[in-house]
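User: Show me sequence and structure for the first protein, then do the same for the second.

Assistant: Starting with the first protein.
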Amino acid sequence: FGDDTLLKRLSPWGAVRERNVTIQGRANQEYVIEGVEHLDYIEIFKKFTLNTLGQQESYRLDHIAHVVLGERKLSYEEHGNLHALYENDFQKFIDYNIKDVELVDRLEDKLGLIDLSLTVAYDSKVNYDDIFSQVRVWDTLIANHLMKKNICVPPRRENSKLEKYEGAYVKEPILGKHDWIVSFDINSLYPHIIIQYNISPEKILGESASNVNVNKMIDMTVPLDHLKQEGVCITPNGAKFKNDSQGFLPEMMEKMYNERVVFKQRMLKAKAEYQKTKDPKLVKEIARCHNIQWSKKIALNSAYGAVHNAADYSRVPGGSSGGSAVAVQADLCLAALGSDTGGSIRQPASFTGTIGIKPTYGRISRYGLLAYASSFDQIGPITSSIEDSALLTEIMAGKDEADATSSSTEVKSYKALLTKKYRIAYSKEALESNGLSESVRTAYVNLIQKLKQDGHTVEEKSFPYLDYMVPCYYVLTTAEASSNLSRYSGMLYGHRSSQANDIESTFKKSRSEGFGPEVKRRIMTGTFVLSADSYDAFYSKAQKVRRIIQRESNKILEEYDLFLCPTTPTVAFEIGGEHSKDPIAMYLADIFTVQAPLAGLPAISVPTEEENGLSIGMHFMSRAFAENDLFNIGEIVAKYYED
């Protein structure tokens, strides 16, 4: 650079520092341009796309451009290496670098990561390179918040990790030493927990309750009445926090949450307006509001966004018990529980290659389950083996005085009878369904052939109500949901808006802020079908259709032991893909699983073949309280697909 005059012009302060560095064993000169910060686009990509695109197998530009844009870098394979390309074909070397810039430019056009990075830095008042550290972001947020309140922030203390002092660090857990591990790191705690317990450093009381632990809290054997009188909150590890006034951390988080709601609503309003007018000015407003609300979410929420399918991080795990299914799929646990209303255990089991069963309605107590649709909801296990599924079901099943809908029907232990031959009906309509992907159709036909070859009687059976089941299911479940979710009003249960100033605004604002778009959609649909003008046209007819589905399902199962169909029409679809943007397409993903809950019958999803490493589940339904037949056929089918 000669006398560095040109380089100094790049610095707003005309200051450049030179230093020698060693990279991969080679000595290099590096220039630090004061007042200019360098952000690595790949590092920004890593930080801000984990929740949408998942962990990538590679973060080379060639790979992420292929994942996001479907494009590749310019190949120079014929030259062997980049230096040879430079020496032998300089024009292609120039084209290669231009292509790189174009790819990054198109990535930014699609993802807007630089805008998001700048928004996070501006909103948090940190340097641009500090956005990669949540600790630095929160240090700055807290310091600025306290300075506005004229509260002195003590200087940072340098401490060795060998010292033991309050708030220093969390010791490494020792395997088997502790029953529970409790974290008080504000970067990993959910904001609502901090708000609920008023967790803030100036509110902590020196003494802790020695007779409190997580087990006692769960069993509700900890006397808490005196704590209310003392004005104290207590956490499951016995730590006490004064609640005479809101601590600064809960106050900050509540304020940030409310600000995020405001900008998200502005964004949605601008989007709706843009759909009507196509006004180009609204595009900037949509982007601005999106970045602000997203930056607050990043600062607020320790959750990493959507749960990913462990077989392919770009795919969904299904829902609503997708988290439970992935925990088993990824071998994080031996088994997990889910709640199934229309397929919320069986669909994720199909997508993740696990085993999921929805027991007969009433077989397992619903006590402790937050009701969505009370006449459909059932608890069931998600496991990696039939034996585990059967054992857990047996342990949980039986009469419970706390749930009037639980059944007193005898619970029999499961014993495998792999030589038993079943009479199985398979769905003609499912096989001919237009929405059934070719890979699922092929797996369905292959399983039918395997069952026949194994000596089972497998016959086609028409069930002509396939197209009526999903509409019937959604009319009834949304009606029940609108009633069940009415309790979350901000009075006794659920989020309470800080903007509310009377009873009416408490109801309206708390529910508007606390419920997401899909929940609102279902509540509004349920309220509509229960309204005086629509009750007979929708709700009453749906109840009649449900009785027909129940009657006809039982008729089939009087003649056959089991009813077979695919669990889902497709394999797991992409997160944020076209499928997930269409509510109707999402609802139709339940087309094969809603029959069992409509009829109150048990059903199981068992993994069979795969498409590009993604599991295809098959669905068996049996007579009421015949779960052992489901476990047995599940074990028989599992043998067909053993390596």
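Switching to the second protein now.
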Amino acid sequence: EFSGGRPDPTALRNYFSYLYRIGGNLQYVLLFGDASYDNRNVTEEQVPVISYQTIESLYSDRSFMSDDFFGIFEAGKGVRNDDLAGNLDIAVGRMTVNTLAEARVVVQKLIDYTTAPDSRGNWQNYITFLADDADKGETFHATQADNLAKQIAAKYPQFNFDKIYLDAYKQVSNSSGQTYPDAVRAVNERMIKGSLVFNYTGHGNSTRMSQEHVLTSSMVELWKNKTRLPLVITAACDVSHFDDPNILSLGEKLFLQKDGGAIALFSTIRAVYAEPNYVLNAQMYNYLFERDEQGNILTIGEAIRRAKNAMGQYELNKRRFVLLGDPALQLAVPHNKVVIDSIDNHAFADFNDVLRANQRVRLVGSIRNYTDEKLSTYNGDLLVTVFDKPQMVETLGNDGSNTIEFEVQKNILFRGWTTVKNGSFEANIIIPQDIAYFTGNGKLSFFANDSIEQTQATGSCFIPISGSVETETEDITPPEVAMFLNSYDFVHGGITNENPLLLVRLSDESGINISDIAVGHSILLIVDGDEHNSIVLNDYYTADKDTYTLGGLTYQLLQLSEGEHSITLQVWDTQNNVTEQTLQFYVVNSSEFSLARVYAYPNPTTDVLNISFEHNQAQEQLHVTLFVYDMMGNNVAQLQQEITAQAKNVIQWNCRTVYGNRLQNGIYHCVLRIRSPRGTEQVPVPKIIVR
């Protein structure tokens, strides 16, 4: 009806306009498929979903594609002198999939993002700003990023910010150019910890962000952040150049990555310019966290539609920004509020004291909806994070440019869980000795999750932190430390894969120190004795629920070489007592299945035998078979189990034959066969005695 059966972007646009006008309810269009600059298929590349391309093809500034074309319906608007004029009437997004497998990946990511209980956490309180350094004196990248952070903080103080400004990190020069290894580590760690929004301002192209390769496709492959997916915003050229079938752009990689990456991107298809980028970015934050008339957070697509319409200029530049993702998706902004009602039995509205070092503090609060009504049926857990006062950081002027100063508030004094019951909570926290002893406001940040309804709440308040109190008794006992890899039954000297997950349990009567204000008092991880490249793990520690004396942390180790390794953990308590512990282990590349330490117990046995084994296939599905032979070589018993691999696994056999009869007393040989996605391994088990 609209094109006579021929592929035609104008026909699609006219069809959408028709639906919009006859029903009036059309709000979103999702283009489900990749695009190509070659709509006529001259190159014989398959084009899943046709795209709008400007007429110009020689002048790069005016040669681009834009999905905005499909959402402008006003008469006399749309294509005009090769420009796209007019306001967006609907929100348009695209899923750049080419295969059924890719489609399943992105759809499952959407389902998990909106429904999976483990896809909720304190990462929903964080917004990350990554800013390029000052190539050619361009300090405005960091300045623009910082202005955006200030804009959000002024209106939405519940958010915490991770500011990764390249010029604030040491630049390293080598044969391949300039790099920022510490900034790359900061990006990787933030993605693993999670961020609601990840915003980049600077130079880029279809393979990387920044000339120094601070974010690349190979980095994305290492991220395991599928339960903490950010919206990625890139104010940089070409990051999501998806209409060239011969390349897989960085933006597409982030969107299509199976076990992580991003839930959506508001990103660029062609070259763009810094000033209009900043204007659009700022407009985006005017709407991204706003609520509609029903009190719901605006969808990503609606926020983009309003932001673009509000610009009123820079028509060409804003058209090169596209949404990779579902325009009807709501960002995972916590819907409800956390409110502090009292501190140490003083009503919060009347509280005019300060929090002090060594002080035990009692916080009482409640969970409320956006109209400030207490939610008396809210039950779950609440995370309390106490930040020290903000401090000023100066960039380094790595490329000979002027330096700038910016504010950060990231030194955490306490982080721990407490119980929420019937919409109320009480949290007992401790302020460590190591605080900044100048005047200023600390920040209390809150995240709550209802374990039944799976709804979240967020909030914050600012309280002066200064001075100290005397402790009643002197604490000279250091913390207790227990370290494991991949699972809590890992043993010293065991084997693991090349990317093991470090698991740590800590305990101390005065609580664990996670403040980094005092040099050397952090939770410090040293790999293979390399103290010069030690890793600070303060941000990974959280106290257990309803106590500050117990807690734990997890940290993903990456790309360890095959062979023997050791890790040493140094931990301080809040009274500056220190302890140190070392764990030794052996890495076997997970591409080849490997077993170790296979043994049976109790041996001799009467009715139950446990077979324990270690391996290098963490979290993989294993098919385990135990064969039991008598002294004549007859197969008298067989046991099969499907298990999810831990660092060490144990299967149990009831000492009965395949017919259910108890084995006769005697000596038996056993063989353990394990099949994993990486192969099959078969090993003998030491002789067992049944009596």
